[in-house]
Design goal:
The complex is a heterotrimer. Chain A is α+β, with helices and mostly antiparallel strands. Chain A is 25% helix and 24% strand. Chain B has two domains: 3-65 and 162-328, Aminopeptidase (3-Layer(aba) Sandwich), CATH 3.40.630.10; 67-147, Elongation Factor Tu (Ef-tu), domain 3. Chain B is globular. The chains are: A alpha+beta, B alpha+beta, C alpha+beta.
Chain lengths: 344, 331, 348
Amino acid sequence: MLKYLKELCLMDGVSSFEDNVRDYIINELSPVVDDMRIDALGNLIVFKKGAKRVKGGLMLAAHMDEVGFIVRKIEDDGYIRFSAVGGIDARVVLGRRVFIGKDMVPGVTGLKAIHLVSAEEVKRVPKIKEMYIDIAAPDKASAEKKVSLGDKIVFDSDYLEFGEDKVKAKALDDRVGCAVMMNLAKQDLPCDVTFVFTCQEEVGCRGAFGAAFSVNPAYALVLEGTTSADISNVPAEKKVTRLGAGPVIGCMDGSTIYDEGLFRMTAALADEAGIAWQIKQYIAGGTDASAIQRTREGVRVANISVPVRYLHSASTVACGKDIKDTLKLAQLFVRAIAEGKAGK
Amino acid sequence: MDILKTLNTLNACFGPSGREDEVREAIKKLAKPFADEMKTDAMGNLYVRKKGNGAKVMFSAHMDSIGVIATVVEDEGFIRFGRVGGISPATLLSSTVRFANGTRGVVQKNEDAKLDKLTLQEMYIDIGVANKEEALKHVQPGDMAVYDAPSFLTPGGMIVSPYLDDRICCVAQLMALEKLKKTDNDVWFVFTVQEEVGLRGAKTAGYIVDPDYFVVCDVTWSDDTPKAEHFASSVTGKGAAIKIMDGSVIAHPQVVKLLNDIAKQKKIKVQQDVLKGGGTDAGAIHVSRAGVPSSGVSVPIRYCHYAQEMAALSDVEDTAKLLAAFAENKF
Amino acid sequence: MDLKKELQRFCKLSGPSAFEAPVVKAAVELMAPLTDEAYVDKFGNAIGVRRCGKKNAKKLLFDAHIDEIGMIVSGYDDDGFLLFTSIGGVDRRMLPGREVTILTDPPMFGIVACLPPHVLSREEMDRSIPMKDLRIDAGLTSKEKAEKLIPVGTPVSFRNGDYGGFYMDNNLFCGKSMDDRACFLILVRTLELLKGRELDCDLYIIGSCREEVALGARTAAFAIAPDACVAVDVTHAATADNKGEDSVLGGGPEIGIGPNCTRWMTERMKAICEARRIPMQLSVMPGASGTNGWVFQIAREGIATQVLSLPERYMHTPVEIVSLKDMEYTAELLAEFALEPGWGVSKC
């Protein structure tokens, strides 16, 4: 699997609490890049000189944040009420360990035992606002000693490789994108590149607005993790993307129609290099491109994503080859831009 | 032993749960040439034993079939009934049933009863007589009836018949008894009663025999019909189904392994059987006394508990072979 | 015994009903130094016996089951995803996205696959998915591969990361299979408390199998023919969404009252708690207790039975929580009971 991926996934970085991830990237990249700054929202903007300048500039983007939860209320009996930060399916929240706050206080999302629910109740999944976290605090005062309103809450999930070339961890969306950018940043580049590690993508691409405005590029490539619903009993037209079928080249999603020229260019690069690729077969979701494309006078945006199963859950899954090919394709993209192949 | 002929002999007998005498007598006749000892217990279970000093190995197939029991004879001669075992409106509607004395009738529903919400209370048996007085000459409340349907072979080597559950396995046990070579094991082929109403015969049979190993021989569902919902993992034609689990028992892994090893050694075609529901004598026997390591060898059937069930002849052969091989095994 | 270490160890072991062998082995090993004999019986239960050496001694049996709920592989889809069914009472609401261990040799990692929000309607997202529509993802790409590596009938257990269970504040432990291995460890602790003390009866400790599917301990009761049985199992403690429960964590063992609990045993246990100031909680059970106690009572000629319960939150999830204080209280109660059961005449 790609270098940095494991460390990145094990770190916590719920939207607006990306500090740990940002510090790690700064540490790893500072010896090999030319400039680094953190903006008002917390985006990490990294500039690396390459063999030449590109007219207007090239920006690459991946988001540092992951979906998680936030402490909404501490009850009198010590239980914690919480809300989702980013879009999380209520069905994957129950019966698992989470960590709260800076001190990573462990708690579990409890659930009334099956013996006590009616046949009707078992058909329903409780809404997140009906759920609670148990940190074994006997009352509010004890709970308040350990956690506070507004504390971040992150899934507990280890990193492991399994099956045929698969990896499981939390937050593959979008630590895969971050890992691809970090690997690129370590290389000698054919042109100047600004790498933007954005924050708060999961709550509405919030970081990308300001970052795109300040970087003001001509071209932007967004590296993401995208939904794969290639489970066997899902009808073909709902599978969206498939693991093992290669990087997903952005054509259209729920928030952006990607630049047609860049789309065709990227596809041609993949074909020439013998890299299998796919498009999203279901128009939904969005990336930081939605914030970048319509900035200032507009930016030509492209997107390459790694297909990820069980997106926005504690246990996301991707295929090693897809990740490696995404890095390869991103490299080819940068070179093509450097060589002026973007056209109009 | 000719499968169809033997099955027809057993099917000609009347034998819903609690009324298995005829079936038992027929099996006794067929088993006699091969048995060292035969006995019957208070409930009516039949024990066919091949004596030995080695491990005590027990098999069982149940003799009873599902059926209905007449409850009320109405003024117009129509007969209301209750169920005996897992018989349902869907399986009964428009079928023909037969009482012990040969009287036959058609099962139908009140005309105003809705098909999608049909209950047994809205159904009746029509034996085609003018009134209650006439009806009572042929059927009394308390009389039971079973499906009355033919059995036949298909061009594809399948057998179609009522109550393949579990008469086809009674046949398989008889075939195994016939095939059985000399062994030191103390082998008990038991033909149980009242399985369909709650594994009742098996409870006492387990207590009486108290074996070292128990292998039930009952049918299992087959997952090979249109839009099958994967209630079962077995299919017709793929061999004897080694029981991993049904709704009443999870087989002991070491017995499952033994059956698989023996099948491999003797080149018997088998498949692994995980059934999400249902129940067999193993449910009662595996927790008998101090417990019995148990599994099963099953014949996969389509349309379980309908008037016409279907199985592959080859599966019956494979089942009989595996039962015999297990009975001979040196434990 | 290092209780904290053993809680972790037993929590991590995989043993769904009928496939408990590794847990049974560990149970026998744990009991061996504290008993005269420790063995696996015909059915698969772990048994430990402490004999008192006295003539015509009565027999007392304490039972806790060591099997857990789980799943079993029942087939494959063409892409290599696994079909499965449940072993015991698995709550389907907590299956999507659940990590599992597929118990092949060596074990394999799997996840119960779930559909992402993007492709679901509002109504679909509110509903829990029936088990027959769920699949296990073992990261394989073809049916052939799956068939080869994971045969039909392979058992599956829940996975809690790589840690099994963990300690929380106020002496609480959270992990899978606390139902009912926490209670088995209480029984081992009871043996420790009885070490070097004189008994007037033979004490049988059972780490029983198949409770979740067949109340399997009835076979041990038949084989041993005790004069009295205590079924030690977990019970529901109050939680945020269920405040009306009889018991709370930290409130001590819960003594059952009702037809399934022979009155002289109930009274004796209450008296012990009062005399020794052991906190206790009471639970009125009008009918079946849902434990091995239900089958003990009708074994053989009928046996005097008591149900004693350890309060637990989130039963049948991988995050069951028990109190170590409650465990110690329960062991103390059982030890005192074993020393002096106060044999009464069964009036049930």
